[in-house]
Amino acid sequence: MFRRIRRRAKEPSEGQRRFAEMAAKMQGQVPPAVERAWAERNRERSEPATVVDDFLPPELRVPSHDQVDGTMMPWKQPLVLEGEMVACSECGAYRGWLILSTRGQIWLRCRVGHQQQETRLDTAWFNRNSGPADATHATFEECLRHLGH
């Protein structure tokens, strides 16, 4: 029963014929309300749009990545990479790091001020673990003072 093939009529039905005739009669006609709406819309488009400066004021703008030399974040707990705790190569400190991300490299800075490059970390790791920037500084020293180093 469900697999029967319906035979199609060779000519359109009476309803289809009446619909085609009605559609042919209405072909160029547009209701007056639609015509008014089109005219109003076209009039609005022909007038120049007013320009609104909705961009943030300069004091609220954040510099883009190409305007910043680098970013840094404090890392108070010990840093464990590949199962071993990272320690300063000069003084042996293992906590209280500043982690710097600059030019695609990651640098560690201990409280004493020794810096060493950490090749096991990358900028993707830094971006995953750092929070939003709370301030921007003109110099490296200002940033160190801001973070308490």
Folded structure, characterized:
28% of the residues lie in helices and 15% in strands. The chain has four helices and six strands, in the order ααββββββαα. It has helices at residues 14-25, 32-46, 123-129, 140-146, and strands at 71-75, 80-81, 84-85, 97-102, 105-109, 115-117. It is elongated, with a radius of gyration of 35 Å. The strands form two sheets. Strands 1-4-5-6 form a four-stranded antiparallel beta sheet, with no helix packed on it. Strands 2-3 form a two-stranded antiparallel ribbon. A hairpin with a 2-residue loop joins strand 2 and strand 3. The longest helix has 15 residues, at 32-46. It is of the alpha+beta class and 149 residues long.
Question: Main traits of this protein?
Answer:
elongated; 149 residues; two-stranded antiparallel ribbon; 4 helices; 4-stranded antiparallel β-sheet; alpha+beta; 6 strands; single chain
